[in-house]
Structure formats: structure tokens, C-alpha cells
Design brief:
By secondary structure, the protein is α/β, with parallel strands linked by helices. It is built from 13 helices and eleven strands. The protein folds into two domains: about 160 residues, TIM Barrel (Alpha-Beta Barrel), CATH 3.20.20.70; about 110 residues, no CATH class.
């Protein structure tokens, strides 16, 4: 994404109170260190919290890593989340993740590591050994742990968020390593459309930053054609986004299974569900399907009848 365009997006976010934090993710965004320093500083001046997601490559050498974190702290970076697991360790040894964690604590940041786990991957103990962590330092993030609690705990401990391998995106090449789970075991909404919409380098706004952003039919609009405020309002009123945040991707699969039993299958995660739907239907078709259901659901609510999809 061109630097000036990124600045324009951040500038437009200033007047949107529901946007509290700007996250820079990729790819490895700190390969564009100078751009990121400018953008973090600009977002901070506008009153936004900032987050970077990084593989920690900059900690190969602790002294150069220390300089980088000093620069990031100076421009106001709020959070830096690490990505570290066997899929990263094939390129960067676990000791680099260990160095990055040490430096984050040194600068007063919480240490949170996103760890993708394949079916035959390492145990938590083995992961700790690869990074040089003591087992007593590690805390596995549980689903009910809030963001603020995680940030507080991460300043003293090393928090690990275990994420199952998705078979979408590049993960499609690792299908044999993913844990597939029956649809019946998935429940609940996905809040990403209201919590973490994303903008692609081309300026397309998507409801999330999952592999679903590979599908043009999932986009809400183009920031080269409409202001951010208008697109955020459109997102919050988008039938597909509303359905996902209210009922969830599993409910979408159950709804589609009414038409085609093929959707009653096993999935690696909720992202795999949305992408499966987007491969089979256009965005327009999906929005019409969920719009019809929500109208039906409204009538059932008025009559005191609950549908099976609604209970998911």
C-alpha cells in the first residue's frame, strides 16, 4: 500500500470513534520499517492505539532489535504481537522468537505469541524449549481471557494463543496437518466484522483479515471510490456481516446445508467455513440467502418460534 494512501486512511479514521486501534499486519510489515514508524506516529497523534503483528525477525541480533523497539516506543506503538510456531521456525529459529520476547519485556510491552498448531506439531513443552522459555513463564490464552487482562498478564509472563491450522490461503498446502472438526461442534458468532475489518493494499474494505479477503465478492467497497466512514456504515448494515456477527459462520453453513447437504461437513476453522461458502456462491447470492433467513427469523421471534439455525 502506498504510504500516502495509508496516511489518508488513518486520517479518515480519526473522526470514527468506533475505530480505537489501527493494526499493521501482512506479510511482515516491519520490512517497511520507515513507513511503519511514520504511520504509527501519525496514528498515535490522532489518538488511536496501534498494533503490529510481526514474526520477530528483527531480533536475530538483540542490539539491532533493541534499536528498533526503541524507535517504535518513541513513536507511540501500543502493542506488538509475535507470530511463532513450526511454520515460522522453518525460516526463523525459535531462539529469534525468544529474543523478541525478551526485548518486548525489556521495553515494557506485553508478550503475546500467536502459535499455529498442526495436528502433528510440537507440544507446548517442545515449543518452549525451541524458544528458550521456561515452562513456568508460559500462559496459554483461554477464550474467556479479555484483551486488557491478556495485556496485563503479558507484561510479566509469556502468553501463547494456540490457533488451529486453517486450510485456507497458504494453509491449503498443509491440509494433511490440519485438525478437521465436524460442523455440529462449531457454535457462536464471529465478531471480526465489527472488531477487525481490514483494508487491502488496493484499498478494498473487507469484513475481516482472514483468507476470505481473497474473494472480491466479500468486499464491502473501495476506499478509492468512497470515504472510510461510508464504508464502515455500509459494513455495519451489510446482511452477510450482520449474520456472521449475530449467528456465526457455522450457522451460515447450516443454512446453506438446507439447500445442499454437502455443507454438512468437517472444517478446519470458521475461516474455512466462510471461504467454502464464498467458493460456492457469489456475495450477492449469500446476502440474499441470509436476508431471507433474517426476515424469517424476525417473524419466528414475533410468533415465539425459534429456528434450528438460530439456536446455533
Amino acid at each position: 500500500m502506498p504510504l500516502d494512501f495509508a496516511r489518508q486512511i488513518i486520517e479518515q479514521s480519526e473522526a470514527i470513534e468506533t475505530i480505537e486501534r489501527i493494526t499493521f499486519t501482512g506479510g511482515e510489515v516491519l520490512l517497511l520499517k520507515d513507513d511503519i514508524l511514520q504511520l504509527v506516529e501519525y496514528a498515535t497523534k490522532l489518538g488511536k492505539r496501534t498494533r503490529i503483528v510481526s514474526n520477530g525477525f528483527w531480533a536475530r541480533n538483540k542490539e539491532s532489535g533493541r534499536r528498533l523497539l526503541g524507535d517504535l516506543r518513541r513513536v507511540g506503538l501500543s502493542e506488538l504481537i509475535l507470530s511463532g510456531d513450526d511454520y515460522h521456525f522453518s525460516e526463523l529459529p525459535g531462539t529469534v522468537t525468544g529474543n523478541a520476547a525478551d526485548l518486548l519485556h525489556e521495553f515494557g510491552y506485553a508478550v503475546i505469541i500467536n502459535r499455529v498448531t498442526g495436528r502433528n506439531g510440537d507440544t507446548l513443552h517442545e515449543f518452549a524449549a525451541k524458544c528458550g522459555f521456561h515452562g513456568s513463564e508460559l500462559v496459554v490464552i483461554q477464550p474467556d481471557m479479555g484483551i486488557r487482562a491478556a495485556e496485563f498478564a503479558g507484561r510479566e509472563k509469556i502468553l501463547v494463543r494456540n490457533i488451529g491450522l486453517s486450510i485456507e490461503g497458504r494453509g491449503a498446502t498443509c491440509r494433511d496437518e490440519a485438525t478437521m472438526t465436524p460442523l455440529r461442534e462449531f457454535h457462536g458468532p464471529c465478531l471480526e466484522p465489527i472488531r477487525a475489518p481490514s483494508v487491502s493494499p488496493e484499498g478494498l474494505l473487507f469484513p475481516c483479515c482472514s483468507p476470505g479477503s481473497h474473494f472480491s465478492s466479500f468486499q464491502v467497497g473501495n476506499l478509492h471510490e468512497a470515504p472510510l466512514r461510508d464504508l464502515i456504515e455500509k459494513l455495519l448494515d451489510d446482511p452477510l456481516a450482520v449474520f456472521i456477527t449475530t449467528y456465526g459462520p457455522a450457522a451460515l453453513m447450516r443454512l446453506l446445508a438446507r439447500r445442499d447437504p454437502e455443507f454438512e461437513r468437517d472444517y478446519s476453522d470458521v475461516c474455512n467455513m466462510c471461504c467454502t461458502a464464498l467458493r460456492r456462491y457469489t456475495g450477492t447470492e449469500l446476502r440474499e440467502i441470509v436476508r431471507e433467513f433474517m426476515t424469517e427469523q424476525m417473524l419466528c421471534t414475533l410468533l415465539g418460534v425459534e429456528t434450528s439455525v438460530g439456536r446455533s
